[in-house]
Structures are given as structure tokens and as C-alpha cells.
Amino acid sequence: MLGLTATPERTDQADILSLCDNNLVFERNLVHGINDDILVPITYHGILDEYVNYQEIPWRSGRFNPHDLENAFATHKRAEHIYQHWLQQKQSRTMGFCISRKHADFMAAFFREKGVKAAAVYSGSELGRTEALRQLENQQLDVIFSVDLFNEGTDIPSLDTLLMIRPTESKIIFLQQLGRGLRRSESTNKKEVVVLDFLGNHQSFLNNPAALLGYHDSQTALNRALRSQGEPIELAAGCYVNFDPRLLDFWQQLKRRIGASAQEDYQQLTLELGHRPTATEFFHAGYSLQKVRQQHGSWLGLLAVQEGAEYSALLKAHGEFFLDAVETTRLNKSFKAYLYQAFVELGGVRNAVSVDAVAQRSRELLEHRPDRLAVELPASVRRVAGDSRAWINYWRKNPIHYSCQQDKRSPQAWFAEENGVFTLNFTVEEALQERFEAYFIELIELRLAEYFARSSVAERMVAEPGDSFNKS
User: Fold this and answer.
1) Mean pLDDT, to the nearest integer, of 43-66?
2) Range of the domain at 332
3) What residues are paired with 217 via a beta bridge?
4) Is residue 55 domain-shared with residue 117, that is, in the same domain?
């Protein structure tokens, strides 16, 4: 199966890469587009939004209270601050992204008082979307102030200046807005897009530099921005990225406060996702699972603290198994993870499963990643059928046999194989079985994601006949 998407990071938070077994074969991002002269370079100014104290605006469920935000924005001091920066940096055609209709109307009126040809455009506005774009193109308008109307699906090649004057709680929305100005324009000979991004004194504003610099998590972007020491950051050929030194001072203070605990990381990601993050989502977001284990013993230990009784019971009964046999077990190949996935899918937590069945299903799962199959398997079994004796005997030797050995860190062997069946070497009480299976799969998905993310794995792995069987 080949999956194609223009939206790898999605507002619905769907993990679409997992649909293709975390096998990313090709990608092209903003930096590639600029370097290949498909998109114009960016001149980005991160400006302190100094006339709004975001620390005083209520923050609930991952966003600011819209009523309080709207009132804070409708001030002449803030509008003048935005206008002066725009006056210094503007090009010929500008779009400003606003928080509400009231905010868009206020900003358009303020700019018109300054003699600027400006209009507010939103669903139901007096000036319609199509006509507004026509007037901007013909320079009958200098600025359009918009509300959730041009975030995506709009082609405006001549647009050359962007005013980010509202919080964008989502990196995806920020990139959609940025994309409005990135198209090349032969008719206007556009050389760059100028971005004036007004950033406030709140952690949520780290989303914008994180998206711009191409980082999944805000903390990495924060560290990168702070390392710049006020110097321009190189993004791509011809780009210029600079932040107000006062923002760097605030971010230094922020760095000392955030990310100290795994619980804070977990809670922040929960707010961003709108649901309890899986271990794989936590990993893909760039947070540290090592810190989780240092502070809570395991991912399950953190879930027990954050989510309560069901995970606490699972931790008490089977915490050692999940930590030693799955979360931290060594993976030099993908075999063990696929064996465990096949085992759970075939109902192995509740009943013994045959070695033949688990070997065949493991082969089917491994074939989802032909790139790994080609380098992990010796030539003698690369093309044999999953139900052949050659394959079943190979899979019995590794990984089944080695999964049934006691690890020096573990109090017992976690699995057993006898008389052609493969079983857990302990019993899961009926009340915990469903939760046990779901959590087992969650950890398997994490380990596969970690394994496939190791960029050096293909270079280190050489599959040859007689390859050592202890590489599971």
C-alpha cells in the first residue's frame, strides 16, 4: 500500500504514517521547496507582542479565552505597534490573520484611518472573499484582515506580506497561513514573503517558531532559538529568521520552568492532542521517554499517575513484564516486535497459540516492510512462504526460542514454547486481559516506531546466510 498526503501533520491528529507501518519513503517540505526555487524565501520577524499580557488571559483546553483575547486585542496601542512594524517591513500586498470578526473590523478601520486601503474579510462580511482577492491582486487593496477564511485551499501568488496578529495554538494552522505567501508570482516578480509574527509572553507561542524551524516539539525549537543569541537563523537559501531580543529573554525564563517533569510533558501533549497520548505519539512529538523512565520507572508508571486505577492495577500486576520484555528489550531487528504483535492479534494473552500460526502471521506483518525484510532475513528464507516448514523452523529458532530465555535483568522467562504452542509464562487475570492486550499493542507500536526511526539501522544491518540467531 502506498499512501500519499499533503498534510502529514493534521488538525484531526490522525497518525497517518502508522497506516503505512511507519515507512516514510519520500518527503518534501518547506525548506526543499525554497531550495528548489518552487517557493519564495522567507524573511521572518518574530516581534514581541508587548501590549498584551497573555499571562493574564485565561487558558483552557489548549487555547485562550476568546472573549478576553478579543478585548485585549481591540486597543489602539497594540494596533499602532502592529502598524509601525508593517510600515517598516511591508511589500505590496498584505494579509493579516485575526482572531475574530470584531478584531478584523477593528484592525481594518485602524489602518484605513492611517490612509491604508484595508478591508476585513470573513464569512458574511460586506466584501466577499473572491472580490477581496481580486482587489488585492489589482492593488485596489493594500491589506486584507481575515478570520479563518484563507488558512488553506487558497492560491494567492501575488501575496507578499503576512501579518500574524493572533495566537495560532496549532503548528499546522501556522504553516497553512504561512503557505498563503510562499507561492511564486511571475506577474509581480515576487522575490520573498515577509512575515511579521507577533509573539506573546506565553508558552503556546513557541508553536510558531517550532513549525517554522521544522521541529516536532516546542522545547527543541526553544533551544534552537536561544542558541541564536539574537543572530539570524538559517532556514533555507535566501531566508532570514530573527527574533526580538526581548523574546529571547522571556524564553530563557520559560526554559527554566518547562520540561522539568515528564508529567508536564504529558499534560502539554494531552492539551495539544485533545486525548491521552499514546507512547508512540509521545515519542513522535519529541519528548523524552528516558526522562519518563527516570521519573516514573516506565511509560506505564506515568500512565498510572496520570490516568488512575486501571493502569495502576496493570502496573502492579505486570509492570516488570512490560518494562523488561517490551519497553526496554533490545531490538537489533524487528523480529521480536512482530512476533509479539502476531501473538496478541491471535489471542495469545487469553489462550495458547500454535507456533505455526504465530510464525505465519509474523511473516505477514514483516512483509508490510519489504525494505526491512530484504536486509534482516538471510537469503535462504527471504522468498519462502509463511506456512512453509523452512520459515516456521527459522522463526522458531529466532525470535521464539530467544523470547523463551530468561534475561539476566528479569526474574523469569516471560514466554514458553512447548509441544508446538507458544504461550505467556504467567497468567493474566480475566479482569485485566483487555487492558493488558491494548497496552501490549501500544508498546509494540512504540518499539517499532523507535526501531524504524533509527537512521543508521539500514547501514548497520547486513543480512547474510548464517546470520547470528541472537539478533532478535
Assistant:
1) 87
2) 279-460
3) none
4) yes
